């Protein structure tokens, strides 16, 4: 009986780990859906300067629709209850539903990998040399790469704040204020002036302090990432555990929708 309980506890722990790392991968896809743009190849004419917030939104969406694959380094910071947690991970994405993320920092999570090839999702925990595998539902809605952008502008009052420079590149800066009262006071976007890639995103709390930030570095768009980049090989000696089927596309669309408010759509009086 004791052995059966230990086995059940182990499987439960594995399921929780898989859920956490899968959420990280889905968040990467959700933020990609919000941030992805299209970088002009040599010989293409640079995108025109937008004359209004509406034109800027239109150009971002048009750019996303031209994005077939993406690679980048994601740097994100979360501040909560006086503590700050920093993450750095690599991201590969290929339309419509292939992705690969690998955590670089913090050290205790380094080497954590999540991979989806459109049919199967894998999560690897190097700390215990364990792989969690699940099938992706065949009956899933098409991922909408522009949903997050449209939802963001529909639920916010956007204003142009001028230009800035990030990592040597010129950016448009937008401030977005939620139309309804939430736990977020505002959001700020840094958009590449040449290719409309949202390179940086800040969320501010009701004290106007940034509590969640995301930045993309070493971005490459439409570089021709092969399908083989999303093949997962089980590490030698790793234990493989299977969990119930999931609908990744549904989670990606829901996550993209929530990027407007990463702490949830809570409304009402705030203290």
Distance N to C terminus: 49 Å
Range of strand content:
35-45%
Helix-strand pattern, N to C?
Answer: HHEEEEEEHEEEEEEH
Low-pLDDT residue intervals, each spanning 5 or more residues:
2-49, 248-271
CATH architecture: Clam
Give the tally of β-strands. 12
Q: What order do the strands of the largest sheet run in, or round the barrel if closed?
A: 7-8-9-10-11-1-2-3-4-5-6-12
The domain count comes to 1
Class based on secondary structure composition and strand pairing: alpha+beta
The biggest beta sheet reads: 12 strands, mixed
Under CATH, the topology can be stated as outer membrane lipoprotein receptor (LolB), chain A
Query: Any idea what the CATH superfamily is called?
Result: Lipoprotein localisation LolA/LolB/LppX
User: What is the level 1 CATH name?
Assistant: Mainly Beta
Indicate the multimeric state.
Answer: single chain
Total helix count?
Answer: 4
Question: Helix amount, in percent?
Answer: 10-25%
Radius of gyration: 19 Å
Mean of residue pLDDT? 77
């Amino acid at each position: 009986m004791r052995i059966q309980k230990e086995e059940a506890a182990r499987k439960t722990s594995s399921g929780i780990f898989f859920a956490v790392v899968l959420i990280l991968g889905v968040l990467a896809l959700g933020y990609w859906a919000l941030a992805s743009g299209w970088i002009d190849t040599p010989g293409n004419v640079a995108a025109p300067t937008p004359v209004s917030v509406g034109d800027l939104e239109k150009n971002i969406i048009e750019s996303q629709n031209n994005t077939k694959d993406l690679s980048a380094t994601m740097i994100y910071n979360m501040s909560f209850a006086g503590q700050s947690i920093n993450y750095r991970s690599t991201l590969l994405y290929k339309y419509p539903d292939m992705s690969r993320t690998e955590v670089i920092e913090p050290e205790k999570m380094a080497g954590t990998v999540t991979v989806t090839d459109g049919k199967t999702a894998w999560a690897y925990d190097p700390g215990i040399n364990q792989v969690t595998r699940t099938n992706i539902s065949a009956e899933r809605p098409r991922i909408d790469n522009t949903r997050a952008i449209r939802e963001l502008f529909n639920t916010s009052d956007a204003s142009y704040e001028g230009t800035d420079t990030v990592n040597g590149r010129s950016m448009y800066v937008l401030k977005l204020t939620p139309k309804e009262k939430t736990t977020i006071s505002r959001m700020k976007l840094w958009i590449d002036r040449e290719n409309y890639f949202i390179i940086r995103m800040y969320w501010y709390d009701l004290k106007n302090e940034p509590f969640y930030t995301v930045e993309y570095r070493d971005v490459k768009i439409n570089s021709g990432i092969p399908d083989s980049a999303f093949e997962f090989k089980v590490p030698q000696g790793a234990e493989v555990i299977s969990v119930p089927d999931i609908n990744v596309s549904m989670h990606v669309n829901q996550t993209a929708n929530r990027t407007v408010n990463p702490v949830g759509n809570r409304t009402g009086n705030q203290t």
